[in-house]
Design brief:
969 residues; 34 strands; 6-stranded antiparallel beta sheet; 29 helices; extended; alpha+beta; 45% helix
């Protein structure tokens, strides 16, 4: 009874053990297996395993069981032995085995028994860790190789040798590295491993798009081939079967060269291997760029001072302990003074009086412990010339935090400021032209043209009066069309008509067809001195109004009396000439409308006063019989057809079907058969004298009292000139719209063209800094920081201009995809934590949800959130920024709340306008050009994301964004 209890207890342990427990015979059959063993090997039952003839079949290596039984025969036990086995489905199984041999009294082995634990997952993790360690070791070895003071060719050869011995790659011992010759767009073989002589010769220079290496260089994409195929365009004697990885060596999307490694013909493409090879290519890219930089370094070193001078950058320092001030030679050249003993008072003496407060503010900020100050001020040269300089400085402190030295740079930015001013003025002129075009679109009278014209010219150029003269067809007189802003309307009326012949000024305008400028009418011999004296003219500008190579008149503007002489610049003349082109289209339209109104009025009067309206109608009116032959016609029709007269026309039996050609026969027949009137538009007709006419034909059945149709009454209207005039107007409007699109595309292209060299400059800066950082002192290292900060600021500005230009040009492309909003915000917040800590601000992110899935453009949404968090930190001096992500039934709600400077109610309506900043609060003491929030709004609008803002000046600002949840099917 007691033995049965023990047996039952053992059976319970055997059945419930999480460890595999087994017994097997020396011949290789299972005697006992518990459920854990059955589950481990993925069999359906213990009986299936007991039926296995030889357990050696379960080993990955069938000879392994024999080796283990030999050990058991010798040692009697196996402890913690890791064995590689196979599951029933063939998958790999790793087990940790403890086993012993059970013998009889004579020492013969009766059976083996033991326990096993499944360690497959652990072994997989260990293998992955080993592989990662091997990859890391190989990459570190290649990186150390590139940092040695050896030639690039030697570095390449060492890299190839390291690669072919990598235990995880299975490469053939053969490969090569090519570099791009940018002049000829070819690959040049720089080094190889085991290339035969013939291959070395054939592959010494490989054209782009030729063979596999050339194709990889052309596309910048990794190429894989499993065997020799038609892509192997370069062949040689003795070539052996193989495959390839061809990895481009890239730097900022520029192909510097390629790495080609050889694979066995059976090798399958492996994405992990490709990613590893890309990492190797990235390391070699750095080595190539470093050698290029080192080659340039010697050349650049001698040019450094010259370049600094050419860039108008000077250096300065101020020792606050000794009060000694040092300025470089270029600094003195910038201020236009000879070298002299400098004091703070002397520095203040040549600062422009209007910018003195800026200098005082900067000194106060420095005293308060702020560093890295930068500001733009004007200086006065001894000759009275005003120059703009960008003044940047850094402060150095002792170990106790006391400021002991200031140092920095002066850069003459006058030309840049001038260009900025020109760009602003150009933008203002373009906006003005667009406003004029919009207002002129609705203009129907002379005053509706000249009043907006005068207002815009005064706003842009400062001229307070404008006028328009029209030239009569015979070019004998110029008649005042309209004027605005004149001081003496009666006097202007007296010169409303000017005889052109005998007036040198007007003769020149009509004869030359170009803008004519009188700098000072009081002394210019071309002007009528009597009129000038009476009107008080000084500067006069007359711009011709030309429509389809025909001069309609001229636009005039200028100064009077105490306004003095004010000669326009070239850009201002371009503005006036552009306006004149718009005016030409509108005047032509008004003349057209006026002429048509006059014609309509004449028809009305004739209908009322003259019973012979048909004979006097400006449109052709004709009656025809059922055959289409003319039975009567008015003068307009006869003139249109160039007929000698009605009597002769009737004798000739003119047929309107044949005269007006195709398109009317069916309409004639329907009208005669059914009594239905009809109208046919834009019929093209070639007259007897060869002129093409476009006519509108209306037909009404002519009936007797009994209702019998006897013919048709036809009204034929010649609309040729009207259609051509409308086409001219449409073409002119298209030109204006195209000009606006060209402007927007120009801004996008200019931003791209500026960003590309700036990226290159910052890239070379990193190379120079890496090489020389340890060789510079603390003061010189601050110069490095100054370059980096200024470059990154400019790059951010260009990115903003490029983005908004792409949107305005309609070339911004959205990529809608599924995004986790919570993870996106979390990553952005983590990026901004250092910036917040630097300002002693708390940056908190709260989201009581597992995920927040939306469908949106990742770039646009991330840029919007980046901008809002960046602004919150930038404009918050103390306190915190709370970022909360909440949800309701349909939406996720993102709330970004700061304790910053706030926004005034007056400015909130302009918050999202481009290039807009608040005069107090969001001011120019903060970096930026006023595009951030405008871009944010545009990105959110494109993604259909609502944004709301609430702010209290001096208390803080809260932005609320509403994202629609991704609906899951």
């Amino acid at each position: 009874m007691e033995n049965k209890k023990h047996i039952d207890k053992f059976s319970e342990i055997l059945e419930n053990s999480i460890e595999g427990i087994y017994q097997s015979s020396p011949e290789g059959k299972f005697i006992t297996v518990n459920p854990a063993v059955v589950k481990m090997f993925r069999y359906n039952s213990a009986s299936e395993m007991l039926a296995i003839e030889n357990t050696a079949d379960l080993y990955w290596d069938s000879h392994e069981r024999q080796r283990l039984t030999n050990l058991l025969e010798t040692d009697g036990v196996l402890l913690n032995k890791e064995i590689k086995l196979k599951r029933s489905d063939g998958e790999l199984l790793w087990v940790l085995v403890n086993s012993r041999a059970v013998r009889n009294n004579s020492g013969k082995v009766l059976y083996y028994e033991g326990t096993s634990i499944d360690i497959t997952e652990r072994k997989i993790v260990e293998s992955a860790q080993l592989l990662q360690q091997q990859i890391s070791n190989i990459l570190n070895e290649i990186l150390r190789n590139t940092n040695k003071y050896i030639s690039l060719d030697e570095c390449f050869l060492n890299t190839l040798k390291i690669l072919v011995t990598a235990p995880f790659l299975s490469l053939l011992e053969k490969g090569g590295i090519f570099l791009v010759d940018p002049v000829d767009d070819v690959l040049v073989l720089k080094t190889h491993l085991n290339f035969p002589v013939e291959q070395q010769q054939l592959c010494s220079r490989v054209l782009f798009d030729n063979c596999l290496c050339g194709k990889a260089a052309k596309t910048g994409q990794v190429l894989y081939t499993q065997k020799i195929d038609e892509q192997h365009e370069i062949a040689y004697n003795g070539i052996i079967p193989h495959g390839h990885y061809i990895i481009p060596i890239l730097s900022s999307n520029e192909v510097l060269g390629v790495i080609v490694v050889y694979l066995s013909e059976e090798h399958e493409e492996n994405l992990d291997e490709i990613e590893f090879m890309k990492s190797v290519a990235d390391i070699l890219s750095g080595a190539i760029r470093r050698e290029q930089a080192e080659k340039m370094m010697q050349e650049k070193h001698d040019l450094l001072i010259e370049s600094q001078t050419n860039a108008h950058i000077g250096n300065w320092s101020h020792d606050l302990i000794t009060n000694e001030i040092y300025w470089s030679d270029e600094s003195f050249r910038i201020i236009g003074r000879e070298r002299q003993d400098l004091t703070v008072e002397v520095v203040y003496s040549f600062t422009h009086p209007d910018d003195m407060h800026v200098l005082h503010d900067v000194v106060k900020e420095s005293t308060a412990g702020k560093i890295g100050m930068g500001h733009e001020i004007r200086i006065l040269r001894p000759n009275g010339e005003i120059r703009w300089i960008h003044h940047r400085w850094f402060s150095i402190y002792d170990k106790n935090g006391k400021e002991i030295k200031r140092l920095g740079t002066h850069q003459d930015i006058t030309e840049r400021k001038n260009v900025e001013q020109e760009l602003r003025e150009s933008e203002e002129k373009l906006q003005s032209v667009m406003r004029i075009a919009q207002q002129l679109e609705l203009a129907r009278t002379p005053n509706e043209i000249v009043i907006p014209l005068k207002e815009e010219i005064e706003k842009i150029l400062g001229y307070k009066s404008s006028w328009i003269y029209l030239i009569e067809e015979n070019a004998e007189y110029a008649t005042l069309f309209s004027s605005a802003g004149e001081k003496d309307a009666d006097l202007v009326e007296q010169v409303s008509t000017i005889k052109i012949v005998g007036d040198p000024f007007m003769e020149e305008i009509v004869r030359a067809d170009h803008t004519v400028i009188v700098e000072d009418a009081q002394t210019d011999p071309r002007t009528n001195k009597e009129i000038v004296e009476r009107l008080g003219n000084r500067t006069i500008i007359n711009v011709p109004i030309i429509f389809e190579n025909h001069q309609l008149g001229c636009i005039g503007t200028g100064t009077f009396g105490d306004e003095g002489v004010m000669v326009p610049s070239e850009s201002e003349l371009n503005y006036l000439e552009t306006v004149a082109r718009h005016i030409a289209v509108v005047i032509d339209r008004i003349k057209f409308i006026t002429e048509n109104k006059e014609s309509a009025e004449k028809i009305r009067q004739l209908a009322y006063f003259n019973e012979n309206i048909v004979s006097s109608a400006p449109v052709g009116i004709v009656t025809v019989n059922t055959e289409g032959n003319v039975t009567s016609a008015n003068e307009a029709f006869l003139k249109m057809m160039r007929s000698p007269g009605l009597e002769e026309t009737l004798k000739l039996g003119m047929n309107t079907k044949s005269v007006l050609n195709a398109g009317i026969t069916e309409a004639f027949n329907n009208a005669l058969a059914n009594g239905d009137p009809f109208e046919l538009k834009n019929l093209h007709y070639i007259s007897h004298w060869g002129k093409e006419l476009i006519v509108t034909l209306k037909g009404v059945p002519q009936k007797t009292i009994d209702g019998e149709i006897t013919g048709l009454i036809l009204v034929i209207d010649d609309v040729t000139e009207r259609i051509k005039s409308r086409q001219k107007i449409e073409k002119a409007l298209e030109i204006a719209e195209q000009a606006n699109r060209v402007k927007t595309l120009f801004m996008a292209n200019m931003s791209h063209e500026i960003r590309t060299p700036l990226n290159s400059i910052l890239g070379f800066y990193d190379v120079i800094k890496e090489r020389y950082w340890d060789k510079t002192d603390e003061e010189e290292q601050l110069f490095f920081d100054s370059i980096q900060i200024s470059g990154q600021r400019l790059l951010r500005t260009i990115h903003e201009v490029l983005d908004i230009s792409q949107m305005e040009a309609g070339i911004y492309k959205m990529k809608l995809e599924k995004l986790d909003l919570k993870n996106m915000i979390l990553e952005i917040v983590q990026e901004y934590q250092p910036m917040a800590r630097d300002k002693s601000l708390k940056l908190n992110f709260n989201a009581d949800l597992n995920s927040a899935l939306i469908r949106a453009d990742e770039y646009g949404v991330s840029q919007a959130i980046y901008s809002l968090i960046d602004n919150a930190i930038k404009y918050t001096q103390q306190g915190k920024i709370d970022i909360n992500l909440e949800q309701n039934t349909d939406n996720y709600i993102l709330i970004i709340k700061d304790t910053g400077i706030g926004i005034s109610n007056e400015y909130l309506s302009s918050l999202f306008e481009p290039f807009s900043q608040e005069s107090e609060g969001y001011t120019k003491k903060y970096q930026g050009i006023g595009l951030g929030l405008s871009l944010t709004k545009r990105h959110l609008d494109l993604n259909k994301i609502d944004i709301d803002v609430n702010s209290i000046k001096g208390v803080g600002t809260t932005f609320t964004l509403c994202f629609e949840k991704l609906k899951m099917l």
